[in-house]
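Researcher: Quick test of sequence recovery. Tokens follow.
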């Protein structure tokens, strides 16, 4: 079984067109396909967005009993399916279910002309599932017969390239079991772990990654022996385990963040004292510190190089899902300050919200 990377991510949302407008206007995605009852997607409306090699499928339920309607009612808008690319969906499905993954949808083929796509769905974490996707034929089609592609869709701006990783919150006591599930069932490896303590709060984290390095999950659980914090809040507001944020890779974070900021995207603020300490903490930094400070971009490093990152404020009423922009200068994993930086940044956002 080979998992090459993240083929696409499917969000279940209350209004697919409204969410698409935001992602296109602010982040530079483009609508390149859509489907609904007229294409065989009964009880739903789906819009396919693309930028670089990132594919985002937005799905809204049109009837009360549709899974998207039920998901949004329970969790609010959020990531419901993380799809993995594979070279053999049927073999992957058989292997995964034999190792303990729950079977959600058996393999089925979708074909048109020279294009054939084989999909299946298995369990992931919480209410999030994994779609297995095997593609044959010319690039361009997504789900033949179900998603009608728009041949006249505009080219994206190329600000964002791929999904670098997903951060996932799980209830206390479930971190080890969740990491073990991805190791034993999907063949992932644990590449990083850390305990973070901030302001009387605590959290444990483990990072698991596919053998291809195309899929990376940061798994986080709260330490319930410490003061209640943001991970507890996420689990309460989201009503269980879920994707806390998606990280998009860019090759020019300064330009990307400046562009997104000019379009109204709100990022979590970073205090000036953070940049005063950068030279002593990290030594030489590849990008100009003045530009990083102006935009609030964080810096970290691992054994292989540096990374630059920034987190958006949550755009959801429940203050759950948010996004990250990251640029890597040789860094392959996460530096020791990466998760702590996120934790502290999110604390600043929550404090500012409470003050207002």
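Model:
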């Amino acid at each position: 079984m080979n998992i090459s990377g993240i083929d696409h991510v499917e969000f279940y949302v209350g209004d697919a067109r409204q969410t698409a407008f935001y992602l296109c206007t602010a982040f530079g995605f483009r609508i390149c396909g859509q489907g609904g009852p007229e294409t065989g997607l009964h009880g739903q409306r789906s819009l396919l967005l693309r930028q670089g090699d990132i594919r985002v499928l937005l799905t809204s339920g049109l009837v009360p009993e549709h899974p998207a309607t039920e998901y949004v009612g329970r969790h609010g808008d959020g990531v419901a399916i993380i799809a993995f690319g594979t070279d053999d969906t049927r073999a992957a499905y058989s292997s995964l279910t034999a190792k303990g993954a729950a079977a959600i949808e058996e393999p089925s083929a979708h074909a048109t002309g020279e294009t054939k796509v084989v999909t299946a769905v298995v369990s992931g974490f919480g209410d999030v599932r994994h779609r297995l996707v095997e593609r044959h034929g010319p690039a361009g089609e997504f789900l033949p017969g179900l998603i009608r592609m728009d041949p006249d869709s505009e080219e994206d701006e190329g600000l964002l390239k791929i999904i670098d990783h997903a951060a996932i919150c799980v209830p206390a006591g479930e971190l080890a079991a969740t990491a073990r599930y991805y190791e034993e069932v999907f063949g992932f490896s644990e590449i990083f772990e850390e305990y973070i303590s901030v302001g009387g709060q605590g959290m444990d984290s483990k990072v698991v990654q596919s053998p291809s390095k195309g899929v990376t999950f940061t798994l986080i659980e709260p330490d319930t022996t410490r003061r209640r914090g943001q991970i507890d809040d996420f689990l309460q507001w989201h009503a269980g385990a879920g994707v806390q944020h998606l990280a998009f890779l860019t090759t020019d974070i300064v330009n990307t963040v400046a562009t997104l900021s000019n379009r109204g995207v709100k990022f979590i603020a970073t205090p000036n004292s953070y940049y005063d300490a950068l030279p002593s903490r990290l030594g030489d930094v590849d990008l100009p510190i003045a530009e990083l400070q102006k935009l609030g971009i964080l810096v970290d490093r691992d054994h292989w190089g540096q990374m630059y990152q920034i987190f958006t404020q949550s755009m959801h009423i429940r203050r759950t899902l948010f996004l990250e922009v990251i640029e890597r200068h040789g860094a392959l994993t996460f530096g020791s300050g990466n998760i702590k930086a996120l934790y502290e940044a999110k604390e600043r956002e929550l404090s500012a919200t409470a003050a207002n």
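Residues 162-355 form a domain with the 2,3-Dihydroxybiphenyl 1,2-Dioxygenase; domain 1 fold (CATH 3.10.180.10).
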